[in-house]
Design goal:
Elements: H1 3-13, E1 22-26, H2 31-45, E2 52-59, H3 65-81, E3 85-89, H4 92-99, H5 103-122, E4 126-128, H6 133-146, H7 150-153, E5 159-161, E6 169-171, H8 179-188, H9 205-220, H10 224-250, E7 254-257, E8 260-264, H11 265-270, H12 273-286, H13 295-307, E9 313-315, E10 320-324, E11 328-333
Parallel strand pairs: 1-2, 1-4, 2-3, 4-6
Antiparallel strand pairs: 5-6, 7-8, 8-11, 9-10, 10-11
Length: 337
Amino acid sequence: MDVQEATRRAIRRHNLVALGANLVVAVSGGTDSMALLHALAALRDQKTLKVQITAASLDHGLRGAEGAADAAYVLEQCERWQVPCVTGSADTLALVSSRKLGIEEAARFARYRFLAKVAQDTGADRIATAHHADDQAETVLMRLLRGTGVAGLAGMGYEAPMPYTPEYTVIRPLLNVTRRQIEAYASAQGIAPRHDASNDDQAYTRNYLRQSLLPEIETRFPGAARALAQLAESAAVDNAFIEAMLEVQTAAHTRRLSGKITISRQHFRALDLALQRRFLRKTIRELGMNEEIGHEHILAAVEVLATAETGAIIEFPGGLSARLEREEITIIRRVDG
């Protein structure tokens, strides 16, 4: 599958970008994001995609000179492809301490905060990322192992509210393209991407899934990665219906304010158990948390919210909490810095 054609089809089929819109592209310097940026720039030049593209590249502050070199490489390539580029840096380790997050989640928070700032500065409301079919398989497998429901099995969508700042939308035009196809495209286009050595460190969960666990599963069950991606697609269809039902049941009883979401206590307790769980998971996602909060947290929280007395507080990882008030249930996320 040609990456340019796959990108064009995904954008048109799923209405990912409006005509004449400003689009931020998240670029690390690696194969996937460089291939996506090249494809989008080519479609722009061919007048097939009439949008304004801005690349955004963040040095997470974890790899010293290598991180700075990645940003310099992205800038150089953007000049060649005539794509405006914004670079930035973050102190991820400081976020680990201040927000009490694992290093992966802290880096994710820093990255999305940076992308939101670039989107704001460029007048964009959509950010393109290079998540692909293999990433989808890894996501579904990771959620299965941690414990999940239908929403988790749906994996990543072609578009979704951006974590931490849901007023922006993340789009994923490569979600139906495999890593092998992306690598073939990059090679054919003469793209020589940077290599992030931290992606080889299997202390990180996703690296372990990608490099050890999923390949081992594939040796016993060939095609397992594709089957996981297909499971995500099927679950996404069912999930969309359930989400629509949830909206019908809760919209009139829910308020969304800066950094917090509230729902009528009486109405929450009247919901079916499936919708109680779904509401809490959706709220957590809208407030920017997902991967750090497992199914067991959801089960325990729903039990407390449905039965405890006024004043009860539930603490989640990542500075998220739910508080049982007299008339309402409030879910709030602490934001530091």
